Amino acid sequence: MALATADAQGDPSVRMVLLHQVDERGFVFFTNYESVKGLELSGRPRAALCFYWPRLHRQVRVVGSVERTSRAESEAYWAGRPYGSRLSALASAQSSVIPDRNILEEEVQRLQSLYPVAPPLPEFWGGYRIPADAVEFWQGRSNRLHDRLRYHRDGTGWRIDRLAP
């Protein structure tokens, strides 16, 4: 999914991240809390998501607040990640400038020696949940007269609006 955040000045940033799960509590993904996205979400805990299926001419957009998952949820996800992915997450100060790739590869080798079986979940890594305030469904049409439905939280329920294309 595409994840959009904004920095302290309001400048937007968007990148692709892996959706881990979605349920009645929201959309969940995991990352380094000290990455650009993590720092932006810490300073401005709102985000937008976009899912796009070009062959189906469909898109879903989500907007909402952002909260961290519990430590237990992060630990459960971490334990299920491949060994190499856990080492990479530990080795990389995500989004920081590095002199070359060798520094990462050397750090991974060091961590392999230190944790030959189960690298521990670092404090700087975990999940985010985005409970949706609004969800928009878009169905493309060849004549550009697209269908758009926006579900928006309204008290304890949802209001549905049809939007002009």
Give an account of the 3D structure.
- It is a single chain.
- The protein has 165 residues and is α+β, with helices and mostly antiparallel strands.
- The protein has one domain (2-79, 124-163): Electron Transport, Fmn-binding Protein, Chain A (Pnp Oxidase, Chain A), CATH 2.30.110.10.
- It is built from 4 helices and 11 strands; from the N terminus they run ββββαβββαααββββ.
- It has helices at residues 36-43, 71-80, 83-91, 102-114; strands at residues 2-6, 12-16, 21-23, 26-32, 46-53, 58-65, 67-68, 125-130, 132-139, 147-154, 157-163.
- The strands form 2 sheets. A 7-stranded antiparallel sheet has the order 2-1-5-6-9-10-11, covered by helices on one side.
